[in-house]
Amino acid sequence: MTRPQQLTAKLSDKTVLNEKFTQFSFELAQPHRLEFSAGQYISLALPNEKGERRSYSICSSPENDHGFEILLDITPMGKATQYLNNLKFGEEIQFLAPLGLFTISPELEKKQQPLIFVATGSGIAPYRSMLADQLQQKRNGAKIILYWGLRYVQELFWEEEFEEMETAFPNFQFHPTISQPVPEWTLCRGRVTNCLSVHQQPTDADYFLCGSSAMIDDVIKLLHEKNVPKEKIHRELFY
Amino acid sequence: MADQQKPPTQTKQIGRYKVEVIREKCISAASCVAIAPKVFDLDEEDIARVISQDGEDDDTKLLAAQSCPTMAIIVTDTETGEQVWPR
Across chain A, which distance is largest between two alpha carbons, in Å? Predict the structure, then answer.
Protein backbone atom coordinates (compact mmCIF):
# COMPACT_ATOMS: atom_id res chain seq x y z
CA MET A 1 0.00 0.00 0.00
CA THR A 2 1.49 3.36 -1.04
CA ARG A 3 1.88 5.63 1.94
CA PRO A 4 -0.27 8.73 1.35
CA GLN A 5 1.31 12.16 1.31
CA GLN A 6 0.15 15.63 2.28
CA LEU A 7 -0.57 17.73 -0.79
CA THR A 8 -1.92 21.12 -1.71
CA ALA A 9 -3.88 21.88 -4.87
CA LYS A 10 -5.59 24.88 -6.41
CA LEU A 11 -9.16 24.99 -7.61
CA SER A 12 -8.98 25.18 -11.40
CA ASP A 13 -12.56 24.52 -12.47
CA LYS A 14 -16.03 23.96 -11.10
CA THR A 15 -18.83 22.43 -13.17
CA VAL A 16 -22.41 22.45 -11.94
CA LEU A 17 -23.65 19.22 -13.51
CA ASN A 18 -27.24 19.68 -12.34
CA GLU A 19 -29.10 20.83 -9.23
CA LYS A 20 -27.70 17.94 -7.20
CA PHE A 21 -24.16 17.29 -8.40
CA THR A 22 -21.10 19.49 -8.91
CA GLN A 23 -17.68 18.50 -10.22
CA PHE A 24 -14.56 20.22 -8.86
CA SER A 25 -11.21 20.20 -10.68
CA PHE A 26 -7.91 20.88 -8.95
CA GLU A 27 -4.37 21.43 -10.19
CA LEU A 28 -1.64 20.18 -7.87
CA ALA A 29 0.49 22.86 -6.24
CA GLN A 30 2.82 20.99 -3.89
CA PRO A 31 3.99 18.41 -4.77
CA HIS A 32 3.25 18.75 -8.47
CA ARG A 33 2.58 15.08 -9.14
CA LEU A 34 0.23 12.52 -7.61
CA GLU A 35 0.32 8.86 -8.55
CA PHE A 36 -2.86 7.02 -7.67
CA SER A 37 -4.85 3.99 -8.76
CA ALA A 38 -8.29 4.43 -10.30
CA GLY A 39 -10.85 4.06 -7.53
CA GLN A 40 -8.79 5.69 -4.78
CA TYR A 41 -9.86 8.73 -2.79
CA ILE A 42 -8.50 11.86 -1.13
CA SER A 43 -8.97 13.02 2.45
CA LEU A 44 -9.69 16.75 2.38
CA ALA A 45 -8.73 18.87 5.41
CA LEU A 46 -11.44 21.34 6.36
CA PRO A 47 -10.07 24.77 7.25
CA ASN A 48 -10.74 24.72 10.97
CA GLU A 49 -8.84 23.99 14.14
CA LYS A 50 -10.83 20.86 14.87
CA GLY A 51 -8.91 18.66 12.41
CA GLU A 52 -12.06 17.66 10.53
CA ARG A 53 -11.65 15.91 7.17
CA ARG A 54 -13.88 14.57 4.39
CA SER A 55 -13.20 11.80 1.91
CA TYR A 56 -13.90 12.05 -1.84
CA SER A 57 -13.23 9.53 -4.59
CA ILE A 58 -11.14 10.82 -7.44
CA CYS A 59 -13.30 10.80 -10.57
CA SER A 60 -10.57 11.64 -13.08
CA SER A 61 -8.16 9.33 -14.86
CA PRO A 62 -4.85 8.39 -13.19
CA GLU A 63 -3.24 9.35 -16.48
CA ASN A 64 -3.55 12.96 -15.35
CA ASP A 65 -1.01 13.01 -12.53
CA HIS A 66 -0.81 16.81 -12.18
CA GLY A 67 -4.42 17.32 -11.15
CA PHE A 68 -7.61 15.53 -10.20
CA GLU A 69 -11.38 15.87 -10.09
CA ILE A 70 -13.93 15.07 -7.42
CA LEU A 71 -17.70 14.87 -7.48
CA LEU A 72 -20.01 16.21 -4.80
CA ASP A 73 -23.65 15.72 -4.05
CA ILE A 74 -24.20 19.26 -2.84
CA THR A 75 -27.75 18.84 -1.57
CA PRO A 76 -26.86 18.11 2.06
CA MET A 77 -24.93 21.47 2.12
CA GLY A 78 -22.72 20.37 4.98
CA LYS A 79 -19.52 22.07 6.08
CA ALA A 80 -17.36 20.53 3.33
CA THR A 81 -19.84 21.36 0.56
CA GLN A 82 -20.02 24.95 1.72
CA TYR A 83 -16.24 25.15 1.93
CA LEU A 84 -15.71 23.78 -1.57
CA ASN A 85 -18.59 25.76 -3.07
CA ASN A 86 -17.15 29.00 -1.70
CA LEU A 87 -13.60 28.33 -2.91
CA LYS A 88 -12.34 30.85 -5.43
CA PHE A 89 -10.39 29.81 -8.49
CA GLY A 90 -6.72 29.48 -7.57
CA GLU A 91 -7.48 29.06 -3.88
CA GLU A 92 -5.66 26.16 -2.23
CA ILE A 93 -6.90 23.08 -0.45
CA GLN A 94 -4.90 20.66 1.67
CA PHE A 95 -5.45 16.95 1.45
CA LEU A 96 -3.98 13.49 1.90
CA ALA A 97 -3.74 11.05 -0.99
CA PRO A 98 -3.81 8.45 -2.35
CA LEU A 99 -6.09 6.45 -0.06
CA GLY A 100 -8.31 3.42 -0.42
CA LEU A 101 -8.38 -0.17 -1.58
CA PHE A 102 -11.36 0.04 -3.95
CA THR A 103 -9.24 -0.59 -7.02
CA ILE A 104 -8.86 -3.17 -9.76
CA SER A 105 -5.79 -5.15 -8.83
CA PRO A 106 -3.14 -5.96 -11.46
CA GLU A 107 -3.94 -9.66 -10.90
CA LEU A 108 -7.59 -9.06 -11.73
CA GLU A 109 -6.67 -7.05 -14.81
CA LYS A 110 -4.49 -9.89 -16.04
CA LYS A 111 -7.35 -12.38 -15.72
CA GLN A 112 -9.41 -10.39 -18.25
CA GLN A 113 -12.59 -11.50 -16.50
CA PRO A 114 -15.83 -9.50 -16.68
CA LEU A 115 -16.16 -6.52 -14.36
CA ILE A 116 -19.54 -5.33 -13.16
CA PHE A 117 -19.69 -1.85 -11.64
CA VAL A 118 -22.75 -0.92 -9.58
CA ALA A 119 -23.32 2.61 -8.26
CA THR A 120 -25.98 4.81 -6.77
CA GLY A 121 -25.81 8.61 -6.83
CA SER A 122 -22.33 10.07 -6.39
CA GLY A 123 -21.02 6.52 -6.01
CA ILE A 124 -20.41 6.78 -9.74
CA ALA A 125 -17.25 8.84 -9.10
CA PRO A 126 -14.61 6.09 -8.81
CA TYR A 127 -16.01 4.26 -11.87
CA ARG A 128 -15.40 7.25 -14.15
CA SER A 129 -11.75 7.00 -13.18
CA MET A 130 -11.73 3.19 -13.54
CA LEU A 131 -13.42 3.25 -16.94
CA ALA A 132 -11.00 5.81 -18.33
CA ASP A 133 -8.15 3.72 -16.97
CA GLN A 134 -9.40 0.29 -18.05
CA LEU A 135 -10.87 1.18 -21.43
CA GLN A 136 -8.95 4.16 -22.73
CA GLN A 137 -5.55 3.61 -21.16
CA LYS A 138 -5.14 -0.11 -20.60
CA ARG A 139 -7.42 -1.24 -23.44
CA ASN A 140 -8.89 -3.93 -21.21
CA GLY A 141 -10.96 -6.07 -23.59
CA ALA A 142 -12.91 -7.84 -20.84
CA LYS A 143 -16.63 -7.24 -20.60
CA ILE A 144 -17.33 -4.25 -18.37
CA ILE A 145 -20.90 -3.37 -17.36
CA LEU A 146 -21.90 -0.24 -15.45
CA TYR A 147 -25.20 -0.02 -13.54
CA TRP A 148 -25.94 3.40 -12.12
CA GLY A 149 -28.99 4.09 -10.00
CA LEU A 150 -30.53 7.53 -9.63
CA ARG A 151 -33.94 8.69 -8.53
CA TYR A 152 -34.83 11.03 -11.39
CA VAL A 153 -33.75 11.36 -15.03
CA GLN A 154 -32.86 15.01 -14.33
CA GLU A 155 -30.13 13.82 -11.95
CA LEU A 156 -28.21 12.09 -14.75
CA PHE A 157 -24.85 13.51 -15.89
CA TRP A 158 -21.78 12.12 -17.67
CA GLU A 159 -24.22 9.93 -19.61
CA GLU A 160 -22.92 11.22 -22.95
CA GLU A 161 -19.40 10.34 -21.87
CA PHE A 162 -20.46 6.80 -20.98
CA GLU A 163 -22.47 6.44 -24.19
CA GLU A 164 -19.44 7.51 -26.22
CA MET A 165 -17.43 4.85 -24.41
CA GLU A 166 -20.10 2.27 -25.34
CA THR A 167 -19.67 3.25 -28.98
CA ALA A 168 -15.89 3.24 -28.87
CA PHE A 169 -15.52 0.06 -26.82
CA PRO A 170 -17.92 -2.78 -27.72
CA ASN A 171 -16.97 -4.64 -24.52
CA PHE A 172 -18.54 -1.87 -22.40
CA GLN A 173 -22.24 -1.57 -21.52
CA PHE A 174 -23.91 1.26 -19.61
CA HIS A 175 -27.25 0.84 -17.82
CA PRO A 176 -28.59 3.98 -16.15
CA THR A 177 -31.37 2.92 -13.81
CA ILE A 178 -34.04 5.38 -12.69
CA SER A 179 -36.23 4.61 -9.69
CA GLN A 180 -38.82 7.33 -10.37
CA PRO A 181 -38.74 7.68 -14.15
CA VAL A 182 -40.89 9.75 -16.44
CA PRO A 183 -43.26 7.62 -18.57
CA GLU A 184 -41.05 8.09 -21.65
CA TRP A 185 -38.02 6.50 -19.95
CA THR A 186 -37.32 3.33 -21.91
CA LEU A 187 -34.26 2.01 -20.08
CA CYS A 188 -33.92 0.30 -16.69
CA ARG A 189 -36.51 1.27 -14.08
CA GLY A 190 -36.57 0.69 -10.35
CA ARG A 191 -33.55 -0.10 -8.25
CA VAL A 192 -30.21 -1.25 -9.60
CA THR A 193 -30.87 -4.63 -7.99
CA ASN A 194 -33.95 -5.04 -10.23
CA CYS A 195 -31.91 -4.38 -13.33
CA LEU A 196 -29.03 -6.57 -12.13
CA SER A 197 -31.29 -9.52 -11.38
CA VAL A 198 -33.24 -9.30 -14.66
CA HIS A 199 -30.15 -9.20 -16.85
CA GLN A 200 -28.17 -12.36 -17.47
CA GLN A 201 -24.79 -11.66 -15.90
CA PRO A 202 -21.55 -13.16 -17.19
CA THR A 203 -20.11 -15.92 -15.05
CA ASP A 204 -16.78 -15.32 -13.31
CA ALA A 205 -17.47 -11.59 -13.06
CA ASP A 206 -16.04 -9.48 -10.28
CA TYR A 207 -18.56 -7.03 -8.80
CA PHE A 208 -17.68 -3.54 -7.59
CA LEU A 209 -20.32 -1.79 -5.47
CA CYS A 210 -20.19 1.89 -4.54
CA GLY A 211 -22.98 3.95 -3.07
CA SER A 212 -25.54 3.85 -0.31
CA SER A 213 -25.38 1.16 2.35
CA ALA A 214 -28.94 0.08 1.43
CA MET A 215 -27.90 -0.57 -2.18
CA ILE A 216 -24.75 -2.39 -1.13
CA ASP A 217 -26.67 -4.61 1.31
CA ASP A 218 -29.32 -5.41 -1.34
CA VAL A 219 -26.79 -6.23 -4.05
CA ILE A 220 -24.66 -8.37 -1.72
CA LYS A 221 -27.80 -10.31 -0.76
CA LEU A 222 -28.66 -10.81 -4.43
CA LEU A 223 -25.13 -11.91 -5.29
CA HIS A 224 -25.08 -14.37 -2.41
CA GLU A 225 -28.31 -15.86 -3.74
CA LYS A 226 -26.57 -16.25 -7.08
CA ASN A 227 -23.64 -17.96 -5.35
CA VAL A 228 -21.12 -15.26 -6.27
CA PRO A 229 -18.07 -15.91 -4.06
CA LYS A 230 -17.38 -13.31 -1.38
CA GLU A 231 -13.90 -12.57 -2.74
CA LYS A 232 -15.43 -11.44 -6.04
CA ILE A 233 -17.45 -8.70 -4.35
CA HIS A 234 -15.64 -5.39 -3.76
CA ARG A 235 -17.34 -2.47 -2.09
CA GLU A 236 -16.92 1.17 -1.17
CA LEU A 237 -19.46 2.66 1.14
CA PHE A 238 -20.49 6.25 0.57
CA TYR A 239 -21.76 7.94 3.64
CA MET B 1 37.81 -7.48 30.28
CA ALA B 2 34.99 -7.85 32.73
CA ASP B 3 31.64 -8.88 31.31
CA GLN B 4 29.42 -5.92 30.87
CA GLN B 5 25.85 -6.52 31.93
CA LYS B 6 23.37 -5.68 29.18
CA PRO B 7 20.59 -3.26 30.15
CA PRO B 8 17.11 -4.78 30.16
CA THR B 9 15.26 -4.48 26.85
CA GLN B 10 12.77 -1.63 26.90
CA THR B 11 9.86 -0.86 24.64
CA LYS B 12 10.13 2.75 23.67
CA GLN B 13 6.80 4.53 23.73
CA ILE B 14 6.88 7.09 20.94
CA GLY B 15 4.06 9.28 22.20
CA ARG B 16 1.29 9.59 24.67
CA TYR B 17 -1.74 9.07 22.44
CA LYS B 18 -3.67 5.83 22.67
CA VAL B 19 -5.84 4.78 19.71
CA GLU B 20 -8.89 2.53 19.71
CA VAL B 21 -11.03 1.26 16.81
CA ILE B 22 -14.82 1.09 17.08
CA ARG B 23 -15.38 -2.04 14.99
CA GLU B 24 -19.03 -1.34 14.26
CA LYS B 25 -18.17 1.96 12.59
CA CYS B 26 -15.31 0.71 10.41
CA ILE B 27 -16.12 0.49 6.68
CA SER B 28 -12.74 -0.91 5.58
CA ALA B 29 -11.66 2.30 3.86
CA ALA B 30 -8.19 1.54 5.27
CA SER B 31 -7.00 5.14 5.42
CA CYS B 32 -5.63 4.45 8.92
CA VAL B 33 -3.57 1.55 7.59
CA ALA B 34 -2.19 3.66 4.76
CA ILE B 35 -1.22 6.52 7.09
CA ALA B 36 -0.04 4.57 10.13
CA PRO B 37 0.77 1.02 8.97
CA LYS B 38 2.77 0.24 12.11
CA VAL B 39 -0.23 0.99 14.32
CA PHE B 40 -3.19 -0.33 12.29
CA ASP B 41 -3.92 -3.22 9.99
CA LEU B 42 -7.04 -4.96 8.70
CA ASP B 43 -8.21 -8.21 10.26
CA GLU B 44 -9.60 -11.22 8.38
CA GLU B 45 -12.94 -9.42 8.01
CA ASP B 46 -11.17 -6.32 6.64
CA ILE B 47 -11.98 -4.36 9.79
CA ALA B 48 -9.26 -2.09 11.15
CA ARG B 49 -7.49 -3.15 14.34
CA VAL B 50 -4.68 -1.76 16.45
CA ILE B 51 -1.49 -3.80 16.23
CA SER B 52 0.73 -1.47 18.25
CA GLN B 53 0.38 1.77 20.18
CA ASP B 54 4.04 2.56 19.66
CA GLY B 55 4.67 2.20 15.96
CA GLU B 56 4.14 5.83 14.95
CA ASP B 57 4.35 9.26 16.56
CA ASP B 58 1.32 11.04 18.01
CA ASP B 59 0.78 13.34 15.03
CA THR B 60 0.65 10.37 12.65
CA LYS B 61 -1.74 8.47 14.89
CA LEU B 62 -3.99 11.52 15.15
CA LEU B 63 -3.91 12.07 11.38
CA ALA B 64 -4.79 8.42 10.78
CA ALA B 65 -7.80 8.84 13.09
CA GLN B 66 -8.86 12.14 11.52
CA SER B 67 -8.72 10.65 8.03
CA CYS B 68 -11.17 7.89 8.91
CA PRO B 69 -14.36 8.68 6.94
CA THR B 70 -16.63 7.34 9.69
CA MET B 71 -14.69 8.57 12.73
CA ALA B 72 -14.23 4.99 13.85
CA ILE B 73 -10.99 5.71 15.70
CA ILE B 74 -10.85 7.27 19.16
CA VAL B 75 -7.63 8.97 20.29
CA THR B 76 -7.01 9.49 24.00
CA ASP B 77 -4.19 11.39 25.66
CA THR B 78 -2.88 8.90 28.23
CA GLU B 79 -1.36 11.63 30.38
CA THR B 80 -4.47 13.75 30.79
CA GLY B 81 -7.14 11.13 30.07
CA GLU B 82 -8.67 13.58 27.59
CA GLN B 83 -10.27 12.34 24.37
CA VAL B 84 -8.36 14.12 21.64
CA TRP B 85 -10.38 12.76 18.69
CA PRO B 86 -13.23 12.97 17.83
CA ARG B 87 -13.66 16.24 19.68
Answer: 52
Please tell me the CATH code under which domain A5-99 is placed.
2.40.30.10
Classify domain A106-237 at the CATH topology level: Rossmann fold (3.40.50)
On whether any CB of chain B is under 8 Å from the CB of A94, the answer is no
Q: How confident is the model at residue A239 (pLDDT cuts 50, 70, 90)?
A: low
Which chain B residues in 6-25 lie under 8 Å from chain A, judged by CB atoms?
none
Please state the pTM of the whole predicted model: 0.91
The pLDDT of residue B10 is above 70: no
pLDDT at residue B2, as a whole number: 43
| Residues of B in Cβ contact (< 8 Å) with A2 | 34
Task: Tell whether B67 is within 8 A of chain A (Cβ).
Answer: yes
Domains observed in chain B: 17-85 (3.30.70.20)
Average pLDDT, chain B: 88
Residues near A77 by Cβ (< 8 Å), separated by ≥ 6?
none
